[in-house]
Design a protein that fits this description.
By secondary structure, this protein is α/β, with parallel strands linked by helices. It contains 16 helices and 19 strands. The strands form four sheets. Strands 6, 7, 8, 9, 10, 13, 14, 15 and 17 form a nine-stranded mixed beta sheet that branches. A five-stranded mixed beta sheet has the order 2-3-1-4-5, sandwiched between helices. Helix 5 runs parallel beside helix 6, helix 6 runs antiparallel to helix 11 and helix 12 packs parallel to helix 15. The protein binds ligand BES, manganese (II) ion and zinc ion (ZN). Manganese (II) ion binds next to loops.
């Protein structure tokens, strides 16, 4: 399934997008029949109202209520909901939206077209939109396709998306764009000094591995994406209770999101030298599983006392980040479904990000707002550093008490990066718990569109 706009056609059904405040104005200027029909149906431009207006050949027009600005602030991408209500046909946005709002409506339409039907037939939305004049249709299609890829990768369960499946998806994407890949698997992780990826993943039947992709011109700005690829997180020997384990197929959401973002970057042909690193593991339980109180020595040489085998994400990411940082990229972006604490702090729909670079932070916040992909800066709070320092090793993977859990996890990751001013970490959720416009229930592509904006701003021209 690939998102696309319909070809322009004379017979496309026009959509008028009407704000509540301009409904009276609309009534005055609309043909008498349309005005009467709108009134008779109680259409008043309220957010979410969709009214088809009959004509001699079927639907003559569609009225879409756009509410008021404060109402629209409560969510985003409302056009997806309108599109879902429309019968099969080709539509065009005829009035009411311009500029970025028009672009976002068109994107919302595409994002609303996603269906996860790999395991069961499901009806796909049948209403198609002609790309509005003035929007870059190919760009929006590329963005939506990356978003779909991320949702698919998360939605596919661990039975088909274990480390083997994730590697296959990773290599498939790389091949499609002529990117170079390298895979370090199993005991080779020890030989190549990636010991924590090995320790976390070694209890699984599917060997732990590090996936590495490089694309683009060496002379262009170096952008490296690192994504948590825990294909299933049982918690390990510190096993999760059923209620917490239920969603853990999504614990590769960081890797799914960096792959969606990588696909956007490569489709758009951004002038960057892109690298994608994914530690792909399953945090499972068997005789070989790593244990509480084990002390691991990381690639960087820092020792880590394991105080909870369920704090596995930071371990696999630590080695991947050290490797990424050795090359001194211009920007190092980490995405991970890292902590439950991030959800306690900000809920499922607002993603915390951490960076020491104020300029970069400003760009990320602005991008999130501009493209309706909400992000919130949280602090690398130095006074909490002692919380991640145990008695017997350099670092503790699971500080007692759990205070500031998203912050202490972020601080842990930062210890493995030398070029801290080029580093940003996003503690994402990767899931939509109840369906929203343009966001189906299940896997979610969070922070990719915002970071695409940021990367575009740093690409060579
Ligand atoms: N994958 C989880 C974090 C998670 C849980 C994200 C639920 C989203 C929803 C991670 O590996 C984990 O288990 N973290 C622990 C860390 C703790 C043991 C220090 C957590 O957040 O509880
Ligand atoms: Mn865990
Ligand atoms: Zn995890």
């Amino acid at each position: 399934m690939t998102p696309h706009f319909a070809a322009a056609t004379e017979s496309a059904i026009p959509i008028d997008v009407i704000e509540a405040g301009s409904f009276d104005h609309f009534l005055k200027h609309a043909p008498a029949q349309t005005a009467a029909w709108a009134k008779a149906n109680g259409f008043a431009g309220k957010l979410g109202q969709v009214l088809t207006v009959p004509g001699p050949d079927g639907i003559a027009r569609v009225l879409v209520g756009w509410g008021t600005e404060p109402q629209r602030q409560r969510d985003r991408l409302f056009m997806a909901t309108a599109a879902a209500q429309l019968p099969e046909g080709v539509y065009t946005i005829a009035s009411g939206l311009n500029g970025p709002a028009l672009e976002q409506a068109a994107l919302g339409w595409l994002l609303g077209g996603y269906v996860f039907d790999r395991y069961k037939e499901k009806p796909a939305p049948k209403a198609q939109l002609v790309a509005p004049v003035g929007v870059n249709a190919a760009r929006l299609e590329a963005i939506a396709a990356g978003d779909y890829l991320t949702r698919d990768l998360i939605n596919i369960p661990a039975s088909d998306m274990g480390p083997d499946g994730l590697e296959a998806a990773f290599v498939k994407l790389a091949l499609a764009f002529g990117a170079k890949t390298a895979v370090i698997r199993g005991d080779d992780l020890l030989a190549q000094n990636l010991p924590m990826i090995h320790a976390v993943g070694r209890a699984s039947d599917q060997a732990p591995r590090l996936l590495d992709m490089i694309w683009g011109n060496e002379s262009d700005p170096k952008i490296t994406l690192v994504g948590k690829g825990v294909c299933f997180d049982t918690g390990g020997l510190n096993i999760k209770p059923a209620s917490s384990m239920g969603l853990m197929k999504k614990d590769m959401g960081g890797s799914a999101t960096v792959l969606g973002l990588a696909q956007m970057i490569m489709t758009l042909g951004l002038k960057v030298r892109l690298r994608v690193l994914v530690p792909a593991v399953e945090n499972s339980i068997s005789a070989g599983a790593y244990r509480p109180q084990d002390i691991l020595t990381s690639r960087k040489g820092l020792t880590v006392e394991i105080n909870n085998t369920d704090a596995e994400g930071r371990l696999v990411l630590a080695d991947a980040l050290t490797l990424a940082d050795e090359e001194e990229p211009d920007l190092l972006i980490c995405k991970a479904t890292l902590t439950g604490a991030a959800r306690v702090a900000l809920g499922p729909d607002l993603m915390p990000f951490y960076t020491d670079n104020d300029g970069l932070a400003g760009d990320i916040s602005a991008a999130g707002t501009a493209v309706a992909d909400p992000l919130w800066r949280m602090p690398f709070w130095d006074p909490y550093e002692p919380m991640i320092e145990p008695d017997v090793a350099d670092l503790d993977n699971a500080p007692k008490g759990g205070f500031g859990g998203s912050i202490t996890a972020a601080l842990f990751l930062r210890r493995f990066v030398e070029h801290k001013d080029r580093f940003v970490h996003l503690d994402i959720y990767g899931w939509t718990p109840s369906p929203k416009p343009g966001r189906s229930l299940g896997g979610a592509c969070q922070s990719a569109r915002a970071m695409l904006e940021v990367i575009e701003g740093r690409a060579a021209k």
